Structure formats: structure tokens, C-alpha cells
Fold:
Amino acid sequence: MTISRPLPILLASSVALIVFLGGAPRVQAQGSFINFETPHVHPLDLAPGDLLLAVNTADGMLEVFDVSGATPQPAFAVPVGYDPVSVRARTGDEAWVVNLVSDTISIVDLTTRNVRATLQTADEPADVVFAGSPQRAFVSCSQANLVQVFDPTDLNAAPVTILIEGEDPRALAVSPDGSLVYVAIFESGNATTILGGGGEAGGAIAFPPNVVDDPDGPHGGQNPPPNSGAGFSPALNPGLPAAPAVGLIVRRNTDGNWMDDNGGNWTQKVSGSKASDSGRSPGWDLMDHDLALINTSSLSVTYTSGLMNMNMALGVNPASGEVTVVGTDAINEVRFEPLLTGIFTRVHIGLLDAAGSALGVFDLNDHLDYSVPSLPVGQRSMAIGDPRGIAWNALGSRAFVSGMGSNNLVVLDSSAIRVTPGATIEVGEGPTGVVIDEALGMVYVLNKFESSISQVSMAGEVELARVPFHDASPAAIKLGRKHLYDTHRNSGLGQIACASCHVDARVDRLAWDLGDPSGDMKVFDGNCFDTGCEDWHPMKGPMLTQTMQDIIGKEPLHWRGDRTGLEEFAGAFVGLQGGDGPLGAQEMTEFEDFLATIHFPPNPFRNFDNSLPTNLDLPGHFTTGRFAGEGQPLGQGDAVRGLQLYSPPNVLDGGLLACATCHTLPTGLGTDTLFNGSIHAPLPPGPDGELHHALVSIDGATQHSFKIPQLRNLYERTGFNTTRGSNAAGFGFLHDGSVDSIERFISEPVFTVQSDQDVADVLAFMLAFSGSDLPMGSPSNLLLPPGTASLDTHTAVGAQRTYASGSSLTSEELQFLNDVLSLADSGAVALVVKGLVAGEARGYAYIGSGIFQSDRAGATMDGLTLLLGTAAGAELTLSVVPVGVEFRLGVDRDEDGFFDRDEIDAGSDPADPFSTPIGPGSMYCLGDGLGTPCPCGNDDPAGGGGCANSSGGGALLLASGFAQTSSDTLVLHATGLVPSQPALVFQGDNAIAGGAGVVFGDGLRCAGGDVRRIAVGFASSLGELNYPAAGQASISSVVGAVSGMIRRYQVWYRDPVIGPCAQHFNLSNGYEVTWQ
Structure:
């Protein structure tokens, strides 16, 4: 019913409704972008016919450019899967796009500009190449450690699986004759491993043996061992107490001997006759496989070793057939931060013959001698850092290598040596993919961080043009990412950054001893879960590189919890990286805001509905000898029972505590509370917003202050096992990686498991740990304290099926549809559909009860009906996405409030938020400070909407359609509202104060006179509200519009967070329409 009354009465009568609707505490919206910080592998390719193919990882798109002219021109974009990382053209009209999070391959028809088929792969596919006779498609699956081989002529045939002996096979290349496929193993290791030495005698951890203390060792049992003759460099601070005993990193040299950084030879105790002293068996070794070579006829595999730690990109010289691998190598066997400042990682290229025999490994920064930690800025710019792409010209005389961290290219000759030492080609931010167009003499580079294509002259070796494409990344990512990756900005020599070890915000699979003998003690100031925590000694011993996924709000930081928050790492940009100065407060805030966006990806071990598996196979996991004999394969594990064993009333920890008492759910971190005798009372945040998760003194180490670590990436750390002769990794678990496997840790004597089945069940739960949906802690149960929420992801996220058979849906296709609809209706996930309908590229977002909102406002479609209309050449792909991103990915790509097809119909660009349909009216009464000032100086930073709210911007009201009484298609679009909060859409017949408005709440009231309430609704999780939506009455029918009348519209909305002026409500700008 239309209500007509003066505005104050109208608003007062609506307050009760808004309070009723919005009185409960607001659930924080997840937002329209979920960042997994997914790395590129081969993100750029050329297709016959002058088409350049580029993955748009942030937007889930394949961007296609026409390169026939002077500069690349955007041609079209095709929606693919979640986080595409690689693309290869198979023919002139077919491209294969590898979607890492989706675990799929999108096969794109470049003629119809649509995905015609979707292949299911193993976990985290990374790259694809085509080779062999008959031709087959080889797909590397990085998390699964295998390559799958598909028949492109029969996509329904099951792929052949080739196991790869190494961690994370990613980049692929093909020999010139097609007989070999080369596979670069990303986390190959560098032949370093850990010797136990940090365990406390009689402590909770019995394995590994404390071999560093062995008097029979190279240093006579001195622990910590000296690193410079009989002493330490830098010299010991005489004021320090005795250093704690710690483990020791050793490296296998070219003679096969295991050496420490002081020339100590530990070979006998690692792989020789005394290997049992370190918990190993004689003959124990690290594979250090850097490159796998697959014979395309027999599918047999051979390996090459000894190149580098991280094998990032791969190229083949087409003239000589030589293989080139670029990446980084670490000198983590060298101890102590002062000796590693600015030099701890090198950028290398490995050169091999076609058969995989190494011809040499060269430093791509051959102008550096690493004798100093810092050089003048001009010399730093000569360096390349974090190399991610390599492309050879047809003659094999030049190769171009991209530096993702250094924002440049370097040019190599046929011997893989830089043509001009110190010369670089500056391109955009975060260059990854590189391809060469021989016909045009051009090199094209994909700049990941700024979403652009650089066009580089091959002859002139200079950037000629830079063409942007749509970037869906929020500002926090764009501003803060450089502090993780930029090697020129953040280091003294120009080749390293935080991401040199925290690769792609994850890990390098190594441990480092970054202690300092000349340092000082640090007073303990943490939340000690027990009573024995001690001050921190600067000689901390080896520590595993930790992930940067979801670390903000999980403070304190570091294994020992000796950093209260990220702000304390500002000095590391000098002390460790050799930079000129620490990052400033604003830069650290940018860095922190960026890191706060990073989520853990879907867990590959959970069931499709995100439940825990009850019969999980455990390949690569073995008995430890506590029950059955050592080294026997463990049977299946039941993660549901594992959770039960992990939780009270079971008390596996010495019969006193449950696992969940210390490692709370759902992260595994210690609690951020203190038990006061009756409840776990939350601790207040620190001055920088940091939290205070618990530390303990009883983890079995000689050091008695360690943070209780999170457990969400344990499945990423497997590959080290002292029961096996050949290992893919030299570091495992605990703070220093000295406990080789998860099953070993569970089998430690302190834990009261009763059988290998108990071990298998708890192990299964550890592998399936990430993903949340776990029991909550209790504020009153001493053994089950509450945990902190986790930034992780439902297992189904990314799943896809392409439908092309119309009414002939297979049982599997129908089951997938029913399963995902059920999950979406439960609120666990969201859904989008993209593809061709009636010859048009269309998109749909699921809104519940089987109904999808289309990319034309007001039009909806039943999901089953939609899919029953598919056919060859009119395929639709149904994808599972995180809640909150479905409207961006499905119907409003640029989030400007106008749906994609409506924009195309109106001639505006759905990938440009500044390009919108010409509206039926005009905006007025902006919160830009030019008219009536906003109540407390809270102007809209963008200047285009109302006064700023607690989210930082103002609400923007626009309109589309036609304000015609005879055929009303007028739609009001409000964006920038407070997510999930109620809002009132209303109409007035005059513009208050001549359109300048008057102060009201946190905003300006602009529409007055005869005011009519149109609707009350909730903003979406993105802060959007459209009226009318599908099924709602038209505006003209609600307000009784007549031709010739001028009306003003505004949205009044709730802002329950203490906003800029603390009034708890605000308004959009005004919008004026003349009805026809």
C-alpha cells in the first residue's frame, strides 16, 4: 500500500521496522572477492589467427586480444573456471584453460566464444601441453603430484595417470619433436634436511633422536654447533644466557656428503652406517627431482636433479632442443640472519640437453657477487627477482625471462646468459606469462598484479604499449601486494622479497636458522597457556617457513609467538632483506590489509558436501613402529572418528588434555581467551588490533615459549619420511621440521593412541582439517576452549559441469545439479551459470528455491529449465562459487549496479564500472562537500554518492530503464550500502534546499515534500539493493506516477557499526526523474 505523509513521520514510522529487521548483530559479509593468491603458471599464449589469449585469474575469465594491429586490442572475454592459471591454444579455434581452484580444464571454442566442455582433473591442475602421436593432452596436477593424460578426440575417456616423484609438478613444455614432455617440479627442494637437536631430554617428543648432541658428531656434541671454526659469527653477545640446544640444517654436496655450514661432515649419521643416530636408515636420501621427462609414447618417466629449490618456469630452445628452467635457490644451510642479510636467495636458470642432462646452472643476476647486502638503487634495478616466465625466439638466439617481483624482463642468449649484464626491460607490475609473436617481432607479457598486457619490441627491447583489462581485485590487494613481492622496492640487491621464502604467500618447504648470536633476549609478553613460558633467546635455531595465509587476526606471529603483530616485521625489510629502511606505518597497514584477504583453498580430502571422510585412503603414509613394524602402509582413516579422538572427553595428550584443548577448532591455534575458573574470557585486542592466541612451554622442545600452531596446511608438508629410502622433502613437522611425518607426531609416546588405526583416523582428520564446519568450542569447558574463525573454503567451491545435451541430461549431470542446489539453498555455497542462450553470452546468479537471477534486471529463470535448453553450440556451465561472489561472477562483472546484459543492450561496457547505461534521470545532492557539508566531514572519498558510511564510502543511487507510465521499466540501483542491513527506498516531490539537502543522521536528506515509501529491503552481502527486483511491483504502480511529474528518489539505510557521526543510519545521494 502506498503511504503519503510528511517525511519525518514516514521515517519515524519506519524506524521500528528497521530496528526490528536489523537489530541483531551484523554478520560480517565475506565480500565479492575471495583471494586465494593463486599463482600463474603459463597464463599467456598465442593462437593462430592473431589472437592473444590471457587468463584473468581475479575475474575467472579468458581475455582474448586481437594483435593484428599496431597494439593489442580487446576482442572478447569468455568466463571459465575459478582461478585460471594457464592457457594453451590447441588449434586456431580451440583453447584449453587450466582452472586451479576449480580442478577443471575449460575447453573454449574461440569461434562461438564459449566453453564447449569442462574436464574434471585431480587436485590443483597447473598447466597443459599437447604432444605425442596421436596427440594427447598432458595436464600437471600440482597438489596431487601427478600428470593426467587426456585424449582430445574423446573427452569422455578416462585419463591416464602418471605419478610424479616430487612435490608440486607445475610448468610443462614439449620437446621440438614432440617425443618428450618436460615437467618442472615447483617445490623440488635443494638437498637440505634437518638433524634433530632441539628436543628436551625426557620431554614430550621422543623422535627424532638428538643427534646434534652426539659426542661422536663433527662438533663433539656442542649444541648449538659453531658456525665459524670453533666459534660463532657474528660473535656471541657475552650478556646472553646459554643458548638452547637446537637442530641443525645440512646440505648434500656434489660428492654426496651431508655437510653443515662449518664444514662438518654428517654423512655417516644421515645416510651412512650410523644413520639410525638421526632416526634414518642407511641409504636414506633426498630425491631432489627438479625436472621430470615423460616419454609421450611409453609414458615412462625419468628425472633430472640438482638445479634449484623452486622450479618456476620452463622453456625449450626450438633450435637446439635444450631445456631451460628458471627459478630460485636458497642457501638455508647458512646460519644466522646477519650472515644472510640481502643474499639468502639467488635467481637461477638451469640449462639441460634435450635428454635432461644438466649442462649448467647459472645466476641470472650475474652482476651480483653477494659480498655486500645492499647496493645503490640504480644497481638494484639491474636485478631480476621471482622469475615466472620464459620464452625463446624461433632461432633459439634470444630468450625473454619475466621477473614477477622485479617488474621487468631480462634477455638471454642461446647459452642462457644475459646478453647485456644489468640491462632490463621494464614492464607492468607482476609480469608472469611471456610469449613471442615472430611475425610481428613482438613479445607480449601478462602483468598479473596490474591486470595488463605489455607489448615489447623484440628488436628494440623496449615496451611499446600497455593494455589493461578488467581487474576485480579490491583496493587492499592492489595496494598491499607489492610489500610481499616487490624485490626492487624491498631489498638491498634487488633480487629478494618476503615472497622469496613465503612463495605466493605460502612456503618454500624449507627451514631456516635466522638466529643471531650477537642479539639480545626478548622479554616474554604473550598469553601463556600454562605456567612455564620463558623469555626468548636470539639463537632460536631452525624454523620452518610459515604460510602467510590467514595470519592477520591470528597473532602473535612466528613459531615462538615472539612478534605481537605484523608491525614488528617492519625491521625485517632491513635486517633480513637489506633494504634501506623499515616499512612505514602506512605501508605496514597496506601490507596487513592485503594479507588479511588471503584464504586457504578448498580442502582436497573432504567430501563434496564439506563433511569429513570416513574411509580416506592414505597413500604415502606408513606405520612408525609404535604398534606394527615400521614402514608398513597405513590403511584407510576415518576422519570422523579422528575428530572424536581429537576432542574431549578423549584426552590423547598424556591422558590429561584433549588435542582440541590446545589446538582449538577450526584453525588449530591456541585459544585467544583466559580461563578464569568458570569461563574462557576473551582477551582484549592489543593497540594495533592484534589478538593474543596462546603459547605453551611444554611442546617437548628445549625452548619453552612456543605459539600453538595452526593445522590447516599440514597436507602441504608431506614428503619427508625417515622410514623410506627416497624422499621428496627434507623437512616435516614441528617448528623445525624435524618430525618427519604427521603419523610420526601422532605416534609420539606422549599421545595415548592405542593402535595404528587410531593413528590413521587422527591422521585422516589432520589431512581434512581445513574447511571449518567443525564443532565450536565451549566458553565453559576447560578442555574445549573456543577458537578463532578461519578464512578457509567449502570443498565444493570451484566445482563445475558444462551442460550441452538439453533434455538428455545424464544421471551424473542431474545429480550434480541437485547436489549443488541443495548446498546453495543451505547457504554453504553460491552458484553461477555462464554460457550461450539464443546466441547471446548470458550469465545467471542463484537466488534460491531453484531460481537464478539473469544478467537482465527483473528476469529470472528456473535452473532446470535453463539447463534443459542447452545444446551443442549453446552450452552452459554451472559453477560453485563462494557465498558473496555470485553476483559479480554471474550478472554484474564490474559491480556498478547495472547487470551485464543490460549494459550490453544499452551500449555500455560491463567490464568498466565507469561505463554505465545513460540513466533516465540525474543525480543530485552528492556527499562531495560541494553542497551542504556532510554532518561530520564524512565526505564520500569517490565524490559520487552520499556521505561516507562505516564501510568508508558513500551509498550511490543510480537508475536504468525508462520512466514511462505506459511501459515502466525504471529500476533504482543502490550500491555502497552497508552489507546485509535494511534499507528504505522512498520518493519525494521536491528537492530539499534547492537540491543541496539538509543534515540527517550520518548523511543528507535530499528528497522531501510529499514523501512516499516505495519499499523496505535488505542490502545484499555486497551492499547492493535494486528495486524493483524480479516479481516486485513497478515503481509507477507503487507511487501512482503520471506523465510529466518530476520526482526525487533516495535510499535511507541502517549503519549499526559506529559510523563516522555515530547516528547509526545514513542516506544515498538523490536521483531525479521526469516521468513520461
